Structure prediction request, 363 residues.
Amino acid sequence: MLTCREVTELAGDHLDRESCTGAGLQVQLHLALCPPCRLFVHQLARTVELVRRVEGPAPDPETEGRLLKAFRAAAECQPQPLSEPLSVMPDAPDPSPSSGTPIPRG
Amino acid sequence: MRWQALTTPGQAAQHAIPINFIGTTRVTEPDPLLERLLAKDETAFKALVRRHHGMMVSVARSFVGSHAIAEEVAQDTWLAVIDGLPRFEGRSTLKNWIFAILANKARTRAEREGRIPNFAAVDGDPPETVDPNGFAPDGSWAVPPVAWEELDPERIVAGRQLMAHAADLLDGLPAAQRSVVVLRDFEGLEPEDARRILGVSEANQRVLLHRGRSRIRNGLMALLARSPGQGHNARQRSISKKVNNDGNAGPRDVTLY
Ligand SMILES: [Zn+2]
Prediction:
């Protein structure tokens, strides 16, 4: 039988996915029987949702301006990076006639 | 002239130059944001920077220690992203790729600064012999959790949106916990991707994530316990931006589970 402490750790890690592993089933069994752990896991899930919606600190305007400038500059000086197939392609078939010589059959 | 957007799976895989990144998430659908970036859409790039920059600095800080250096690492990362975008295969998610570049740069920088970027030890995290959640030595609850009100992110508590408090609690986590929570919960990376980016073992990541989430939960708990009666009209208050500090406690909308 898992302890409450073990359950909170395991359940926390499997919050967003269905876990049907042996440990997952043990966790579910424990949760079914243990209201405090159920409450804890619920609160942890709410916490994760909140973190998901947090807004990270925005870059300062100077930094943002510099990055946008770099983005613009790259866009201007790399007009056509990959619209043509590369000349050296490891998996490209080699159409040269010399390698296409039929093997004599005997 | 438009850049050719190479987002069709298969086609992209054939023509793109392999670029070193780690990531296990397989992307099955074209990413509209990536297409806009490849089409030189500045608005898309600005949105990307605003969404991730702060958290990139936060993760880089876990490696390099100082905020100023972390800021440099994040900016260097953006330059590498700009440079590598046309060759980005789209085999992993954009976020994965960006954070993999960030971690590589941060690791290199940390080494140059004489720091050992070992995530198990980088923390200053005291080994927690007493679990923050209040467990007895036998693993049972010493202090069982108490039901709290539903967490409305826009709800105002102690003069600020709950979301802003959560951001502070996240920012205040010990370094390794912070990075794991940022990558897993804020950025939504898969466990295996986050683990490889940070260079932590699966077991360590699980513990770090659990402790980080628990600390944030405990912080929210303490916050909610200190501000009784502010839950009821949270939505109206957040819309009007008017902070109610008159202490006139309304009925609590307690939800029990
Ligand atoms: Zn329990």
In short: The two ends of chain B are 58 Å apart (CA to CA). Chain B touches chain A through 65 residues (CB under 8 Å). The longest helix of chain B spans residues 202-226. Residues A 4, 7, 30, 34, 36-37 surround zinc ion (CB under 6 Å).
